[in-house]
Design a protein that fits this description.
Elements (H helix, E strand, L loop, with lengths): L6 E3 L20 E5 L5 E3 L8 E6 L3 E5 L6 H16 L3 E4 L5 H11 L4 E4 L13 H9 L3 E4 L17 H11 L2 E4 L7 H11 L3 E4 L7 H11 L3 E2 L3 H8 L3 H13 L5 H11 L5 H8 L3 H13 L3 E5 L2 E4 L1
Parallel strand pairs: 5-6, 5-9, 6-7, 7-8, 9-10, 10-11
Antiparallel strand pairs: 1-2, 2-8, 3-4, 12-13
Helix pairs in contact: 1-2, 4-5, 9-10, 9-11
């Protein structure tokens, strides 16, 4: 079995978990396999170049929902988690059947990091059929976390146990935003949302048919003031305020841009946040001479501005 030795820390011992010190019923100890996410260079919006001089905890999103998801919920959860992972956001969920496992899988498929928070002792992966998924999470640089030590400790008894409702406060506590994809009127996912609201976190919910029992909980959240999730951009906007406006601005600039194929290729790279000339050459496959000629024309036309050192920005 992949899991041999687990790590043990208090929340304050990791930059990633120290946020749990501020929640009600904060955990005394955390047990985990894998690696806790480290600080990253600040980015203002997806596609922006990370600032290594300004390190911060990575953005995080919890994606939760029913264990018996519909094809509608499956598609939305997958696309949301994939978009977040591609933007460098850490995806958090509970390793359960349904929406949880869909979110973890999407993050892995996107090459991102994902964290699974257990409601069982650290050496008891539940459901056991998700052991392989847990192994993939760890192998990809993520972590599997529990506030409970090995079976037989913490009052669980040798047979282990499940404390999913207690676990939900940790999922909410680690997240910047909580997205509820599908949830019945009485659902553990609503419990996670309640913890998020108590902790001052942003909660989003996916609207659904008023005739669907699996959308009743989400529709109730929206009626109570939760943000409405309509597309991936809504979630990225909640994580990176101003993202939609910046994205629209970039699209408008490209839509009004008239130039050669080379000029469009170089200008689009700069709009996407790639500032280094050498990197633009590599990404576009043009020669350094072609780049120098193209960037000079873009500068003359007032489309780009030199930052010095072969660094460029769109204006």
């Amino acid at each position: 079995m992949f899991f041999m030795k687990f790590n043990q820390i208090s929340p304050l011992e990791s930059d990633f978990t120290e946020v749990l010190e501020t929640i009600a019923l904060k955990p005394i100890m955390l047990y985990y396999y894998g690696k806790m996410p480290e600080k990253v260079g600040f980015i203002a919006y997806p596609g922006d170049k990370p600032n290594p001089e300004r390190l911060m905890r990575p953005k995080t999103v919890a994606i939760v929902g029913t264990r018996k998801e519909t094809s509608y919920g499956h598609e939305i959860a997958y696309n949301a988690a994939k978009a977040c992972a591609e933007a460098g956001v850490v995806v958090i969920s509970g390793l359960a059947y349904g929406i949880d496992s869909v979110a973890h899988r999407a993050a892995l498929d996107a090459g991102g990091k994902t964290i699974a928070v257990l409601g069982t002792p650290i050496n008891r992966i539940y459901p056991s059929s998700h052991t392989r998924l847990a192994e993939e999470i760890i192998a990809s640089g993520g972590a599997v976390i529990s506030e409970y030590g090995a079976s037989g400790e913490g009052g669980f008894g040798e047979a282990g146990g499940c404390r999913f409702l207690a676990r939900n406060r940790l999922i909410a506590g680690l997240a910047d935003v909580v997205l509820v994809v599908e949830a019945a009127a009485r659902s553990g996912s609503l419990n996670t949302a309640s913890h998020a609201i108590e902790q001052g976190k942003e909660v989003m919910a996916v609207p659904g048919s008023i005739n669907s029992p699996l959308s009743e909980g989400c529709n109730n959240l929206i009626a109570s003031g939760a943000l409405v999730y309509r597309k991936e951009e809504d979630l990225l906007e909640a994580l990176f305020p101003g993202y939609i406006a910046k994205n629209r601005s970039k699209k408008r600039k490209m839509a009004t841009f008239v130039g050669t194929k080379l000029e469009r290729a170089v200008y689009e790279q700069i709009l996407q946040g790639v500032r280094d000339g050498t990197e633009i050459v590599q990404n576009t496959g043009i020669t350094p001479a072609e780049f120098n000629q193209t960037i000079s024309l873009l500068e003359i036309r007032g489309r780009v501005q030199s930052l010095g050192g072969n660094q460029w920005m769109a204006i």
